[in-house]
Amino acid sequence: MVNCTIDHIPVTVPANTTIMQAAESIGIAVPHLCFLKDLNEIAACRVCAVEIKGTDRLLTACNNVVAEGMAILTNSPKVTVDRRRTVQMILSQHDFRCATCVRSRNCSLQDLAGDLNIQDVPFESCIERRPWNRDFPLIRDAAKCIKCMRCIQVCDKMQSLGVWDFEGTGSRSTVNVSHARNIEDAGCSLCGQCVTHCPVGALSERDDTGRFLRAVMDPDTTVAVQVAPAVRTAWAESLGLPLEAAPVGKIFDALKKMGADYVFDTAFSADLTIMEEANELVARFAAGDLAERPMFTSCCPGWVRFLKSEYPHLESRLSTAKSPMQMFGSVMKTAFAEDQNLDPNRLFSVAVMPCLAKKSEAEMPLYAGEYAGHETDCVLTTREFARLIRACHINMATLEAVPADTLYQSVSGAGIIFGATGGVMEAALRTAYHTLTGRNCPGDHFADVRATGQDTGVTEATFAIGDTSLRVAAVSGLANTRRLIEALEAGRARYDFVEVMACPGGCVGGGGQPIHDGEERAFARGKNLYFLDRGAPIRHCHENPDIRALYRDHYGEPGSPAARRLLHTDHRH
Ligand code: HC1
Ligand code: SF4
Predict the structure, then answer these.
(1) Is the ipTM of this complex over 0.90?
(2) In CA terms, which of 3, 230, 345, 443 is 20 to 30 Å from 465?
């Protein structure tokens, strides 16, 4: 153990404890900007510098460890002056027009400058400006980048993709797309994790709120909105409502107040996806084609982008079932339009998603149908939705929980847990169990695939269903996924069915969710979905009466020619 003092308070900590951790252990938060636990501990910003009494030097607290007898001051006048100057230097390279910044009120640099009472920047401004393709779902504003390196580390260590890199030397050093590529060609999965880990407004999603508002303002356009399972766990985090007071019905109410004509829960089409995907799993199994195992889930577009660019030879292992978002878009423009006597060419289909990659999934040519537009015409992230609530001056206190619209009101708990890692797998196994045995399993029968919060991003299990033994895995995070695929390819692992989610913890931790700097909330949000599943009156997708009615009236049965035409894809293009 090591004994030292921090701000005159004695503290004893294990050897190799950083100054920042030691301070935290006695409730002293050392200000910082670039630090991310386990990902970015390199003191790039120098904001966490502290004074060591008896020396001339300031030491950065995030990457220096305490030593026996050290007397550390985190708030001496010397530290304060140094910290103010450091932040002023950073501001001299940062476009601080905060009033129009997407991260205003949720920006670590803005908070820090406010806390340090910085009212001017006495250094010459040198702001870097670079062109960027504003049509791409991920936007980078070089003028706001503070070179903290978080995006580089997150993309590299968490997602194994290395899309960003440092370039230049000295005062010209900066961050850019690696290997001088354009972002479109850089193999970006669009997971958005670099966005949620950026402390400022340098990275963001493309803002599509204007397209949504134009559609609801057009009297000749019918707007139908679906809301993803994970959105309900997080939408109110930045709006001042506690989770218990923020059910999905209030999201529906807010959307109606914004002018949406119809509102639906993507958990409904998650049920539909499972009908098709479980049927496909059983069929692939019955065919006994071992070379085609495992079957991979295909609902996460970040994962599908990753697979197509990194492991294109595995494309045929993807389930051909469209994602719930795309299935709902297809249903809206075909079955729903037909049943409600609506012109599909005047139907604008919107999806509120916790995800950036959903924007690119919706735009893929393969999802343009025989009507105007795409199956999904506009994707808004959870953050864009929260911004719309503010922009439309919707008073959160007036929102009421209203039901989704008919014909698709009913959702199962299995559809709801899609938003958490392991949830798609669990939902599919519940229905596959029914297909193979003719009976329903207990709701929590496959709970072993749920993440515990302590795991490494992969959960594995073997289940016996009737005479069949299934070896399954659920993985989240693309670096974890790469390790899993490499183990498969090397013959070190064998699975029949694998669920992949690009974002750690699944969609609940998606790149379009509200940002809490340096803090991961995915696991807690996921627990909320399992809580909703436990209390759901229906816990199996195949028991959803509205799904049954949809099959009765339009598709016949899972895997039918109509279902294959409208609800599946070959993933090409
Ligand atoms: Fe997801 Fe999915 S779970 S991919 O995270 O399969 O985005 O929530 O909507 O499509 O259902 C996202 C979430 C979402 C789809 C579903
Ligand atoms: Fe990397 Fe994901 Fe950011 Fe793309 S969106 S650059 S894959 S972290």
Answers:
(1) yes
(2) 230
